[in-house]
UniProtKB/TrEMBL annotation:
<feature type="transmembrane region" description="Helical">
    <location>
        <begin position="207"/>
        <end position="226"/>
    </location>
</feature>
<comment type="similarity">
    <text>Belongs to the glycosyltransferase 87 family.</text>
</comment>
<protein>
    <submittedName>
        <fullName>Alpha-(1-&gt;3)-arabinofuranosyltransferase</fullName>
        <ecNumber>2.4.2.47</ecNumber>
    </submittedName>
</protein>
<keyword id="KW-1003">Cell membrane</keyword>
<feature type="transmembrane region" description="Helical">
    <location>
        <begin position="22"/>
        <end position="40"/>
    </location>
</feature>
<keyword id="KW-1133">Transmembrane helix</keyword>
<keyword id="KW-0472">Membrane</keyword>
<feature type="transmembrane region" description="Helical">
    <location>
        <begin position="291"/>
        <end position="309"/>
    </location>
</feature>
<feature type="transmembrane region" description="Helical">
    <location>
        <begin position="266"/>
        <end position="284"/>
    </location>
</feature>
<dbReference type="InterPro" id="IPR018584">
    <property type="entry name" value="GT87"/>
</dbReference>
<feature type="transmembrane region" description="Helical">
    <location>
        <begin position="177"/>
        <end position="200"/>
    </location>
</feature>
<feature type="region of interest" description="Disordered">
    <location>
        <begin position="413"/>
        <end position="443"/>
    </location>
</feature>
<dbReference type="GO" id="GO:0016758">
    <property type="term" value="F:hexosyltransferase activity"/>
</dbReference>
<feature type="transmembrane region" description="Helical">
    <location>
        <begin position="367"/>
        <end position="385"/>
    </location>
</feature>
<keyword id="KW-0808">Transferase</keyword>
<keyword id="KW-0328">Glycosyltransferase</keyword>
<keyword id="KW-0812">Transmembrane</keyword>
Length: 443
């Protein structure tokens, strides 16, 4: 008589008792099925853009001793741009038939994305049981950059995992292994190469031994095995550095599409470059001892600048700023304001803004939102850091850093930064202890 109620009580789902548990229970089903839908539906359905096809074709040509770098760059189809070292690394893809090979490649990138998600939580000391875990998973796999990386069959998922590993090893000062992670990505495509400025500024010279040595060794091994290696130098490299006015969200790409004069295009690039240099200087001068903030913030500034200012930037590169976006978890983050997230909306969402009835307006919204998003985020970083610097100089505390006043040791977080503090902390009492003392006094 009591067996059924006991059995049913075991099947009763656990009821949340806190707001955090409610959010966890609500978000995890969304997270799991968002991942499954993105991988199984977007990653396997037909897509007009196929980044994997030229990669497979090049792998097959390499294994059969045929020419690889003979692309017709007059066409707008995806082209094979990996160097010989990258060709050597991806050659095993052609051991399978094209369909199975692509599914394996998509699965590999999906696993790399999940690994990057887990490592990002570890990097910011967030538990997998926290609300941040499912929320980050939902946001990652709902973004344009992840969806199109898997849909197009691109390698960006592996690059993101390698980037997070690189940043973690740099922070832990495992320099040679950090260089290995970076070197493997450079051997395939040098998208992450600007991040080498971080160990350079931190004096971690050993990183460069393996970061440059690994791709050099792979290039030396691949060069004699490629039938047409000099075509990579004479044909592919010039195309890589040339600007184009299609599928290009860099300033020069949209400027070419809309026919802007050269002087205006260069003016925008120079002004944005100056803002970036000032931001990098402020980060180096005042934040290099705040290691996690320095490394993640500088990584975002460097990467966005490397897409916006040179010749080519595509929206799905934005995946590589996930470590920067996660820095919002830090109290002194430069992303804790609404303009930053307006910018992030511009280049992260999967929305389409094309309009049937107002086509020119819709094209402008669709084509410019990524460029404006990247540019606005660089402006936000500059403004936040610049405002902090000016405030600290005005208050005569530049020697102790430029963090906002409410983050200084002993400051009460409930008191606005510009308001006079009625009760300074006693000597030797840290900020958390001071808050506890004040709460106890209120009680």
């Amino acid at each position: 008589m009591y067996v059924a109620p006991v059995f049913l009580s075991q099947l009763e789902p656990r009821t949340a008792r806190t707001t955090s548990e409610v959010l966890n229970f609500a978000l995890w089903p969304f997270a799991v099925f968002t991942v499954l839908r993105t991988v199984l539906v977007k990653g396997t359905n037909f897509n007009i853009t196929d980044d994997f096809a030229p990669v497979y074709k090049a792998s097959l040509a390499f294994l059969n001793g045929r020419a690889i770098y003979n692309e017709n760059f007059d066409l707008v189809d995806p082209h094979y741009l990996y160097p010989p070292s990258g060709t050597l690394m991806i050659a095993p893809l052609a051991l399978l038939d094209p369909e199975k090979s692509k599914w394996c490649f998509v699965a590999l990138n999906a696993l790399a994305l999940v690994l990057a998600w887990y490592l990002l939580l570890r990097l910011f000391r967030l538990s997998i049981k926290s609300v941040a875990a499912p929320l980050l998973l939902v946001l990652m796999f709902s973004s344009e950059t992840v969806i199109n990386t898997l849909a197009f069959g691109n390698v960006n998922g592996c690059l993101l995992a390698a980037e997070v590993i690189f940043l973690m090893l740099v922070l832990r000062r495992r320099d040679l292994w950090a260089g290995v992670a970076m070197g493997l990505t450079i051997a395939v495509k040098p998208t992450l190469a600007p991040l080498l400025l971080i160990p350079l500024l931190r004096g971690q010279w050993k990183v460069f031994i393996t970061a440059l040595g690994v791709p050099a060794v792979l290039m030396a091994a691949a060069w004699p095995l490629i039938k047409d290696p000099m075509d990579f130098v004479h044909r592919t490299v010039p195309y890589i550095f040339a600007s184009r006015d299609y599928f290009n969200s860099a300033i020069v790409g949209n400027a070419g599409y809309y026919g802007l004069p050269v002087w205006l295009t260069w003016s925008m690039r120079i002004v944005m470059g100056v803002l970036v240099l000032i931001s990098l200087w402020l980060l180096y001068r005042y934040y290099r001892s705040d290691e996690l903030f320095f490394v993640t913030t500088m990584s975002g500034v460097l990467l966005i600048a490397s897409w916006l200012l040179p010749s080519l930037g595509q929206q799905y590169y934005s995946m590589l700023v996930f470590p920067f976006l996660m820095s919002v978890a830090l109290r002194n983050s430069v992303l804790r304001n609404w303009p930053a997230w307006l910018a992030i909306f511009g280049f992260m969402t999967y929305d389409k803004w094309l309009l049937d009835h107002w086509q020119s307006t819709g094209r402008a919204l669709e084509y410019l939102r990524v460029t404006f998003g990247w540019g606005l985020l660089l402006v936000v970083v500059f403004c936040v850091l610049g405002d902090r610097y000016l405030a600290a100089r005005r208050e005569g505390r530049l020697d102790s850093g430029i963090d906002p006043a409410f983050l200084l040791p002993g400051a009460d977080p409930e008191v606005p930064a510009k308001a006079p503090r009625p009760d300074a902390p006693a000597n030797g009492v840290t900020a958390p202890e001071q808050v506890s003392v004040m709460e106890g006094a209120r009680a």
